UniProtKB/TrEMBL annotation:
One Pfam match: M20_dimer
Gene3D superfamilies per record: 3.30.70.360, Zn peptidases
Protein species of origin: Limosilactobacillus alvi
PANTHER family: ACETYLORNITHINE DEACETYLASE, PEPTIDASE M20 DIMERISATION DOMAIN-CONTAINING PROTEIN
Family of the protein in this entry: Belongs to the peptidase M20A family.
Protein name: ArgE/DapE family deacylase
This protein's UniProt keywords: Amino-acid biosynthesis, Cobalt, Diaminopimelate biosynthesis, Hydrolase, Lysine biosynthesis, Metal-binding, Zinc
InterPro entries (UniProt xref): ArgE/DapE (IPR010182), Bact_exopeptidase_dim_dom (IPR036264), Peptidase_M20 (IPR002933), Peptidase_M20_dimer (IPR011650), Peptidase_M20A (IPR050072)
Amino acid sequence: MEKRAREQFVADLIHLNTVGGHEDKVAHFLKAAFDKHGITNRIIPVENGRSNFYAEIGAGESDRVVALEGHEDVVALGNPDQWDHAPLGAEIKDGKMYGRGTTDMKGGLAAECIAMFELAAQSTPLKGKVKLLVTVAEESSPQNHMQGAQAFTKAGYLKDVDAMILAEPSLGQMNCANKGSITYAVTSKGKAAHSSMPQLGYNAIVPLMAYYEAQQQFFATLQARNKYLGKTIPVITKIEGGQQLNSVPSSAALYMKVRTIPEEPNEWILKHLRAIIKRINDQQGAQLALKILGEKVPVVTDPKDEFNQILHQTAEKIFQHPIQVIGSAAGTDASEMIKGNPQMAIAVFGPGNRTAHQVDEYMVLETFHKDIEVYKQALKRYLS
């Protein structure tokens, strides 16, 4: 494809408003494009109005399989008046394309699709197979998101995959790891009473404060550090309690997001949090409870895996400068997909930058075009 056609393909994706719950638009757009190129594909319904998309190329003479992965949804546009460029306009200025999803991650998804179009059109077919796995709900479902990745995993699409590239924004680097996460609430049940007679009630906020202090002391003891991911990061994101100023609160809750590493596994952390809750309930007669809202496992793969090495070497050759191998604090669909094949190598490598989720999000088009070449050359080297 010529550069102009490549850029128009991205622009057409950006024009589609797929803020959570409307991903079918992308699935049908991709089906039409892959049908045009004569590539095997299918739409896979996940929820009402939300469908995964799958495509594959390759002769199948080799048992090697590489998956390319991306998601269809984008985060909310925010206030359009704060944008200097229309959020869905895909305007090009000074070598950058602006719009929601250019960086996270319709730009990366488009690069993967175009790489497959161009590989399918070459005279010598690949001996191995390339799978394209495009998901819903990576960004936009409450708490326990990634239902699209879960659907692919449960259906067995990852079982034969040797390596996977996620085209999430990688800031000019290659990620071989991402943190896991635990999203949870700790609720406290009390008894309402008039604030002039607090002895007739039970203040739900008091034991919740005790829990928060004990939790902070626990997190302060964590010392493990992963080579690529650093330390476990706990953040309190919301707190609520009571209904009016002259009443003893009958309920309260705090909400947490903990970014986790393999050295301090999710279940190990949850075991300690449950122990804190039990201790406070026993000591204070409190009614604290832990509710898990979402949980993703951390992912760390070997950057020296054969495919990851090929990808890294190819990227350095095309970009003509060193590419750093790092980890990411943010989660990806890999946290779900690794469950379907713990042995597969995983790399995050995409054309996005630090403008993800911001107003005037953009993608540098030169990076986009180079990433397409990286995907093509790495896949040909590994699968031919």
